[in-house]
Design a protein that fits this description.
336 residues, alpha/beta, Rossmann fold, 2 domains, 6-stranded mixed β-sheet, 4-stranded parallel β-sheet
Length: 336
């Protein structure tokens, strides 16, 4: 029995998440598909890693001082991570979020003591975009810093120094491929860079939802979006600082319907309650696994990110009325 050693403080709970073999996905791919259980972080998402690194980086640079405030624009999970880390270190938190995100994220942020500012969703070019609003608030607030997760490369460093070495160790150096979707780009770029340092032959794939522009960019060099997605926290229309130099070898585009099929299967057959971004990631990992098998790799080992818990989407992905309104298939047990 493998007993985890005790930790000296709560922030040490961030990272070192379990890796689990996904049985259904492995069968579909014809090789081993592994899920990094980022919902096991204290804030129940992968974004805890970036939150810790960005706050520690601001401290190290002398920008964030005792009693200060961390302000960020986020779809929710980064804000939750920031609020928890800030609480542990004695800082205040202000989060600016689009008002179309899940109610659970909003309620969680308020419960954690963060000041929540909701704004209408809009394009990045609009000065009322949540990122621009949060940046201006930080400029106008005494003792505040703007986390700036999209272009703050402390974000991807969390994955270069943390997630990538963990995956290498957990697979005994046998990992063949890695894929995930991009929001800020910190995870895909950081894990890709970290794994390539270990073995440049590891194949790194972007898994993009519809409505995002990165699939087109890495396939053709042109930022062009097609369709739309209801997935929260993923999908990007520009090359962020975190994405600059990302070692992307190949790319896949996954529909919400396909992602939801894997959300459904992972819950009903393997007991994992996840969000749509995780379902999209798993579908991408299957495509990457099939590609590696077709290219002659013997039993390739492919890993992806299980981003957060499905309990954060009870009012959306697990709500029959909401699913029907979005034109998505309703899980059969929700129809009863």
């Amino acid at each position: 029995m493998n007993i985890t050693k005790p930790f000296g403080d709560t922030l040490a709970l961030i990272g070192n998440t379990p890796l689990v073999r996904l049985q259904g996905a492995s069968k579909a791919a014809g090789c081993d598909i592994w899920g990094k259980c980022e919902f096991a972080n204290p804030g129940s998402s992968v974004k805890d890693r970036a939150a810790l690194y960005m706050i520690r980086d601001a401290e190290a640079r002398g920008e964030l001082k005792p009693g200060g405030t961390v302000i960020e624009g986020t779809a929710g999970n980064t804000g939750i991570g920031i609020a928890l880390v800030a609480n542990a270190l004695g800082y205040k938190t202000i989060i600016v979020m689009p008002d179309n995100q899940s109610k659970e994220k909003m309620d969680t942020l308020r419960a954690l003591g963060a000041q929540l500012v909701l704004v209408p969703p809009t394009k990045y070019a609009d000065q009322n975009h949540f990122q621009h609003v949060s940046r201006r608030m930080a400029e106008e607030t005494d003792g505040a810093i703007w986390a700036g997760q999209f272009d703050n490369v402390a974000n991807r460093r969390a994955h270069i120094e943390g997630t990538a070495p963990e995956l290498w160790e957990q697979t005994n150096g046998k990992i063949s491929g890695f894929t995930c979707a991009a929001g800020t780009g910190g995870t895909i770029a950081g894990v890709g860079m970290g794994l390539k340092e270990k073995n440049p032959d590891i194949r790194i794939a972007l898994t993009d939802p519809h409505g995002a522009a990165l699939y087109s960019y890495f396939a053709t060099g042109e930022l062009k979006s097609e369709g739309s997605s209801v997935a929260e926290g993923i999908g990007q229309g520009r090359i962020t600082a975190n994405l600059e130099g990302a070692p992307i070898d190949t790319q896949f585009r996954i529909s919400d319907e396909t992602g939801m099929e894997w959300v459904k299967q992972l819950l009903r057959e393997e007991g994992l309650c996840l969000g749509l971004s995780s379902g999209i990631n798993v579908a991408g990992a299957i495509e990457l696994g099939k590609q590696l098998v077709a290219d002659g790799h013997e039993n390739p080992q492919v890993a992806t990110i299980l981003c957060d818990t499905g309990f954060r989407y009870l009012s959306t992905l697990y709500n029959a009325k909401w699913l029907a309104e979005k034109g998505l298939p309703v899980f059969d047990w929700l129809e009863e």
